[in-house]
Write a structure and sequence with these properties.
Rossmann fold, alpha/beta
Length: 453
């Protein structure tokens, strides 16, 4: 440890001691992101969707969490003034008045615009608690303009961003027109988290499309995958719907409506999940031979590339994770594959998501949806005690200075890492790309440490 790292460690120990000395009740904010951001992510994932929020003008500023920060290719706002996220500029002084006429007028004006092919409506809690009949308004505006207008419950007081995203998918699954005549060799994915339009997600979808193609299947729709509103109905063509964790309820609703078969799978992130996908798909479609051939081909490419990395870089490496619970099992499996050791994890979502992820992580200490003060204390103390050398984190943990620790920003939101060329993290190809990211970050930190005094 060089002098710079020793000084940093001493400063972090002082911060921990100060936090320990504060015995007052912890009223700090929760570590996480809001329900409305999840709604915005879903709008961002449908290229021509528009959203009206009944709420104050500050709802416009929340788009900056996504556009220009997490997603460099987002189109939620526009210099033309035709923003895809609009609001009613609701003021508390207007709460006791009837707002239905004004709200309908705004919906009518948006629905009448030629660029609007589909429209969503949601509300902040200050508006939702007054009991406006949003679904009736949506039906009336939809009938008048011949466009789909969908109400999304305003549940910001009880949900986080994962709930917001899932609720949009559920509302769409209930409301939009589906194409008919599902075919047995066509599949759809419902519950994919398309949290930005950059090439990490485009590459993920290409990887999954290739996997299906090798099994003699056609991927006809991904909810959501950056498509146009009018393409969402193609999910009805699928004879089988693959349900992913970010939209389980939506997948069930679509299957009930279309008559498709439902296959619930984890994210194909990490070796175990990828193998499970191929086994389940092979058995479901009677294509075990193709599935085994595809797996052997992918592993023959993957294994030689890890020959040096495993013993000299990853083996026994202490790692920490901060972020989305649905990414956690795959990351644990990926690290275990190369001999690294995930020691601690902080989940920045509500506990019910952690429970639904059915995470089994032997030897990993988990902290779920903590308050800010406890988050800082836990992270700093355990990172120093465990001598963490790699932190895989969303933006919440990216700025923490930990001695001799490489930081890889991953998940929503990612402000300092972007993908403007194909860079998957799902499937076997995504495993290699992710391990490549981790390895390069470790070597970059090693180089930076060698230049410190």
């Amino acid at each position: 440890m060089n002098g710079s790292d020793r000084r940093l460690r001493q400063e972090l120990e002082r911060i921990i001691a100060n936090l320990d000395a504060d015995q007052g009740e912890d009223f700090s904010m929760r570590v996480g992101y809001t329900y409305l951001l999840g709604v915005y992510l879903a709008v961002n994932a449908i290229s021509d969707a528009f959203l009206l929020v009944e709420g104050p003008d500050c709802t416009h500023m929340k788009t900056q969490y996504i556009q220009g920060n997490h997603d460099w290719l987002s189109t939620l706002t526009s210099v033309s003034g035709l923003h895809r996220v609009a609001n009613t500029a609701l003021h508390p002084s207007l709460m006791s008045e009837s707002r239905e006429a004004n709200l309908r007028e705004r919906l009518e004006r948006m629905a009448a615009h030629p660029e609007v092919t589909g429209l969503l409506l949601t509300a902040m809690p200050m508006a939702a608690i007054t009991g406006a009949d949003y679904q009736r308004l949506c039906r009336q505006v939809s009938a008048g303009h011949g466009k789909e207008v969908v109400s999304v419950p305003g549940l910001s007081l009880s949900g986080d961003w994962l709930d917001g995203y899932a609720r949009v998918l559920k509302a769409l699954a209930r409301s939009i027109a589906l194409e008919s005549s599902p075919q047995p060799n066509k599949v759809a994915i419902v519950g994919y988290l398309h949290d930005r339009n950059e090439d990490d997600h485009r590459a993920n979808l290409e990887v999954l499309g290739e996997m299906f193609q090798r099994l003699g299947l056609e991927l006809v729709s991904v909810w959501l995958g950056g498509q146009r509103w009018g393409e969402l109905g193609r999910v009805g063509r699928a004879g089988t719907v693959i349900s992913l964790p970010y939209g389980r309820q939506a997948a069930r609703i679509i299957c009930r409506r279309s008559g498709a078969k439902l296959l619930e799978l984890p994210l194909p992130f990490g070796m175990s999940a990828c193998d499970l996908w191929l086994r389940e798909l092979g058995e479901h479609f009677g294509s075990q031979a193709q599935a085994e051939s595809y797996r052997d081909e992918q592993l023959s490419r993957l294994a030689p590339r890890l020959e040096w990395l495993v013993p000299f870089l990853f083996q026994n490496l202490p790692v920490a994770y901060i972020g989305d619970p649905y990414l956690l099992p795959g990351l644990y499996d990926l690290l275990h594959l190369v001999g690294a050791d995930l020691r601690l994890a902080i989940v920045t979502n509500r506990r019910h998501h952690f429970n639904q992820a059915a995470v089994s992580l032997p030897g990993v200490e988990c902290l779920v949806y903590p308050r800010q003060r406890n988050f800082i204390r836990f992270l700093l103390r355990r990172a120093l005690e465990e001598n963490i050398r790699l932190l895989v984190t969303n933006n919440y943990g990216a700025a923490f200075p930990l001695p001799s620790t490489a930081v890889v920003e991953f998940g929503f939101p990612s402000v300092f890492y972007h993908a403007l060329y194909p860079r998957p993290f799902l499937g076997y190809q995504g495993m290699l790309a992710m391990l490549d990211r981790l390895a390069n970050s470790l070597r970059a930190e090693e180089l930076a440490r060698s230049r410190k005094v």
